[in-house]
Amino acid sequence: MFFIPLFLSNLKTKKIGKQIEYIRTTGSTNKTIYHMLQNKEIEIEGVLISDQQTKGKGRRGNTWFSSPGKSLTFSLILKSSDKSLTEKLPLISGIAIIQAIKKMINIDCQLKWPNDIVYNYKKLGGILIEKRGDNFIIGIGLNVNDSDFDESIQKQACSIYSIINRSVQREPLLAFILNDFEKLLNNDMEEIIKKWESVCSHMNTFVKFHYSKNILEGDFVGLSKNGEAKIKINKKEHLFNSGVINI
User: Fold this and answer.
1) How do strand 116-119 and strand 122-132 relate by DSSP bridges?
2) In what order do the strands lie in the sheet with 20-26?
């Protein structure tokens, strides 16, 4: 169970997350929150959290596995009227999670472009942002108290529990994420990029980059002013707005 009063007692936002809806299980929180918006069951800036997501997906169509009652699986819906959100959201979502974990348990997680949360190069969480109609839906999956992982991801995944060997409360962690997320919305892109680069796991390192059907190799040297990946290949910088980095 997710204890909403405990979440609300830690929430310090002005708007985001003031309405939170909890359901035991759903196929996808991103799909469900959009249907709820259409049916006027949730408002813009509301949050939907589920204890179990049975058809969660990550980027590039990958499956997102969640443990019932242990993972933090939720979606936030925002209006897309602000054009800057297209560039901001993928970056501030990850930063907010990194900062919230640091406040909660004082461990330093990092980001892998564009928005994977990692610890010692193992994946701790992921973000999927979709545009539906006039809205952005930010779906986040975070391994919190998970102890058993699907065989297909055992070597690549970790959880907060596996890092510190104890359980943590999901409710204040979610509140901390939303608190920082709302603050970051007011930052300009230059500030956001500096923050993102400061917690990147592969700044100025050699990477393999899967782009379309090609595998490119080069040095990751940061983000462009629009949040694109800057990769130096044969001494020339190239910009990419999609793809997968292997470290």
Assistant:
1) antiparallel
2) 20-26, 47-53, 72-79, 135-142, 122-132, 116-119, 110-112
Kindly state the helix (H) or strand (E) to which residue 22 belongs, with its residue range: strand 20-26
Residues 185-190: contacts with CB under 8 Å, at least 24 apart:
185/88, 185/92, 187/92, 189/84, 189/87, 189/88, 189/225, 189/226, 189/227, 190/225
Q: The pTM is what?
A: 0.93
Could you read off the pLDDT of 82-94 as tens digits, one per residue?
A: 889 999 999 999 9
Amino acid (one-letter) located at 161: Y
- The answer on pLDDT for 56 being more than 80 is no
In the chain, how many H helices and how many E strands?
Answer: 6, 12
State which amino acid sits at residue 125: G
| In the predicted structure, residue 34 carries a pLDDT above the cut 60 | yes
Q: For the segment 127-142, what is each residue's pLDDT rounded down to a tens digit?
A: 999 999 999 999 999 9
Helices 170-185, 85-105: axis angle to 10 degrees equals 140
